[in-house]
Amino acid sequence: MDFNISYTNHQSFILTGIPGMPEKNPWMAFPLGLLYTLTLLGNGTILAVVKVDQSLHEPMYYFLSILALTDLSLSMSTLPTMLSIFWFNTPEIAFDACITQMFFIHGLGGVESGVLVSMAFDRFVAIRDPLRYASILTHGVIGKIGIAVITRSVCLVFPLPFLIKRLPFCRSNVLSHSYCLHQDAMRLACASTQVNSLYGLCIVVFTLGLDALIILFSYTPILKTVLGTASRAERLKALNTCLSHICAVLLFYVPLIGVTMVHRFGKHLSPAVRTLMANIYLLLPPVLNPIIYSMKTKQIQRRIIQVFQRRKNRV
């Protein structure tokens, strides 16, 4: 079937699996299925452990639960189109469905960035003012932070679907990824996309860019406090509580910067490179975040081991 057709008004888009190698798509079904399974199991385990264990009902673990829930939602937003391409070989997606998926992917990306900032604030309070930690980060404050993060992301991403819908599409309707992104759909328009481009850049700068700077600057007083601690054991303990968060930040922002740079300046690169970067950005952090936190957080590690030991004893 020939998908490289130009339409006056697109009613649908064609998503891309492996660029130039559509016959290899079925082989990707198995590793993708494994990644989604690990995402569900890992983040589901984090949520279950925090809910069941009363000792984990602390601000740090509440924020970790929000991160796990965001990772799950982000993975589920890409799952339908991934399945349709690699499992069922149906790459076509309706225009409105594409816009809806675009809204959730970009919106949840903004939420995850905000959650990482919240976790940085949590570490800042825990290390700089440990005696007032519980009194500052109460359940009410955590709830307000969560609502603020979600509201900010929704308000900023809300115009994107309308900015895309106003554009006429008279070129190819083939997207370069297996899910819908604003910058990917925008390039297919046959009118000026300056407004879309500027608004997209503003979102990146004033949310993701600003969040990255806040996280970076928050670690300056954190490190100053840690290095000023007399006991070496206490310094290592404090740094260890920050290590998981630092890994989560790197997992989110490094692929994100890579995807942004490739889309804006990597037009000469192979389509396979752009696809690989985009898939790493959306699929890898939800898989690795629960693994990192399980390995570096003794309370969660201990609880997971207890669950498996109980099941083993029952058997």
From TrEMBL:
<feature type="domain" description="G-protein coupled receptors family 1 profile">
    <location>
        <begin position="42"/>
        <end position="293"/>
    </location>
</feature>
<dbReference type="InterPro" id="IPR017452">
    <property type="entry name" value="GPCR_Rhodpsn_7TM"/>
</dbReference>
<feature type="transmembrane region" description="Helical">
    <location>
        <begin position="141"/>
        <end position="164"/>
    </location>
</feature>
<keyword id="KW-1133">Transmembrane helix</keyword>
<dbReference type="InterPro" id="IPR000276">
    <property type="entry name" value="GPCR_Rhodpsn"/>
</dbReference>
<feature type="transmembrane region" description="Helical">
    <location>
        <begin position="62"/>
        <end position="87"/>
    </location>
</feature>
<feature type="transmembrane region" description="Helical">
    <location>
        <begin position="238"/>
        <end position="256"/>
    </location>
</feature>
<dbReference type="InterPro" id="IPR050402">
    <property type="entry name" value="OR51/52/56-like"/>
</dbReference>
<keyword id="KW-0807">Transducer</keyword>
<feature type="transmembrane region" description="Helical">
    <location>
        <begin position="27"/>
        <end position="50"/>
    </location>
</feature>
<keyword id="KW-0675">Receptor</keyword>
<keyword id="KW-0297">G-protein coupled receptor</keyword>
<keyword id="KW-0472">Membrane</keyword>
<keyword id="KW-0716">Sensory transduction</keyword>
<keyword id="KW-0552">Olfaction</keyword>
<feature type="transmembrane region" description="Helical">
    <location>
        <begin position="276"/>
        <end position="295"/>
    </location>
</feature>
<feature type="transmembrane region" description="Helical">
    <location>
        <begin position="198"/>
        <end position="217"/>
    </location>
</feature>
<keyword id="KW-1003">Cell membrane</keyword>
<dbReference type="Pfam" id="PF13853">
    <property type="entry name" value="7tm_4"/>
</dbReference>
<keyword id="KW-0812">Transmembrane</keyword>
<comment type="similarity">
    <text>Belongs to the G-protein coupled receptor 1 family.</text>
</comment>
<feature type="transmembrane region" description="Helical">
    <location>
        <begin position="99"/>
        <end position="121"/>
    </location>
</feature>
<protein>
    <recommendedName>
        <fullName>Olfactory receptor</fullName>
    </recommendedName>
</protein>
<dbReference type="InterPro" id="IPR000725">
    <property type="entry name" value="Olfact_rcpt"/>
</dbReference>
